[in-house]
Amino acid sequence: MRILLVDDNNTNLKLLTRLVKKIDRCEALPFPTPEEVLSALPDLDFDVAIIDYQMPVYNGVELYTEIVRFEKYAQVPVVFITADLDMTTRMAALNAGAIDFLTKPVNPVEFQARIQNIVSLTVARRQLAEQAEWLRREVDKAVSELRQREQEIIERLTLAAGYKDPEASRHTLRVAAYSHAIAREMGLPEQFCIDLKLAAPMHDIGKVAMPDTVLLKQGRLTESEYRQMQSHAQIGSDILAQSHSSLLQLASEIAASHHERWDGQGYPNRLAGDAIPLSGRIICIADNFDALTSERPYKQAWSYERTVEHVLSRAGTQFDPDCVAAFERALPAIREMMEADRREQAEEAARKTAAPPLGKIA
């Protein structure tokens, strides 16, 4: 335990140094002037400070005020030594952060008893701080493991949802990436952006309840089939709604709201404006952008330029204007992700074409 001693009287400083050395496991750090202490900061390490109140240039309170400007010393206990019994002096010391006083001339027995108590309290506080830090690390570890399990559940459910339609799986991952880019451009908290990216692939999970005749139809849906397909939003939300996982709860929110419109003409609940969860407003743009720029059995893919113009033109009607503005700022990143995905698909198709048929060896 290192104890800082500051006293401009050399005799007093030597006495304090000897008294500290008699305390078990304590080391004295004597300084004759406040200026020398200040010049040694912030590299000086000590656990308790014992400071004379009356000193030239800086009195004890003024010195301690300068010391605690450094955050590392903020919790260090300080004891002031003074011959002044005036209450004003003592109140100034207490307001500065003093936890005890010693009166000159210092009584050796009293000094050792008081300082031993302070040392014991300091050791106990340090042990509590170490235990608190250990508990914090253990909690962080448990939360991280839980988050990893939640993420794995989402990834497995996403794979299951796209099992019949591999392109649907790629769609969900692109939507997640685009949504993350939009959220970051909105200046949203990083943890929310990360959670949004993890939960976004579940936005169409309700399509697992759609019959193959509707889900995989090679052509436009009839009005009846379209209404049936619309039910996937509420079904997806219901599938995920009762989970205790915060990520799955977010995914449920997204599933229910990603087809709502800013003007209230969406589905399933015809929510409008800020009544639509922010997560749903962001996913709505990413989902529409990807759907329009992707080829479907019933349509050709729109060009990047045409799709961007379409999204921007619908700010304030279909889409949240603030989300559209963030989408526009995120376009360089979104386009890069879109083109990278297309290159990956082309390379994958080329590998499949080059692979020899089963049963034949080149």
From TrEMBL:
GO MF annotations in UniProt: kinase activity; phosphoric diester hydrolase activity
From the UniProt entry, list the residue stretches annotated as the region Disordered: 341-362
Top-level taxon of the source organism: Bacteria
Coiled-coil-forming residues are: 125-152
Q: What Pfam families does the annotation carry?
A: HD_5 (PF13487), Response_reg (PF00072)
Q: Which residues belong to any copy of the HD domain?
A: 168-292
- List keywords of the entry alphabetically: Coiled coil, Kinase, Phosphoprotein, Transferase
Is Kinase one of the keywords?
A: yes
Give all residue intervals belonging to the Response regulatory domain. 2-119
**Basic and acidic residues bias: where?**
341-351
Known InterPro entries for this protein? Answer: CheY-like_superfamily, Cyclic_di-GMP/3'3'-cGAMP_PDE, HD/PDEase_dom, HD_domain, HD_GYP_dom, Sig_transdc_resp-reg_receiver
Q: Where is the HD-GYP domain?
A: 146-343
Residues bearing PTM 4-aspartylphosphate = 52
> Which GO biological process entries does UniProt record here?
phosphorelay signal transduction system
Protein name according to UniProt: Histidine kinase
Q: Which organism is it from?
A: Allorhizobium taibaishanense
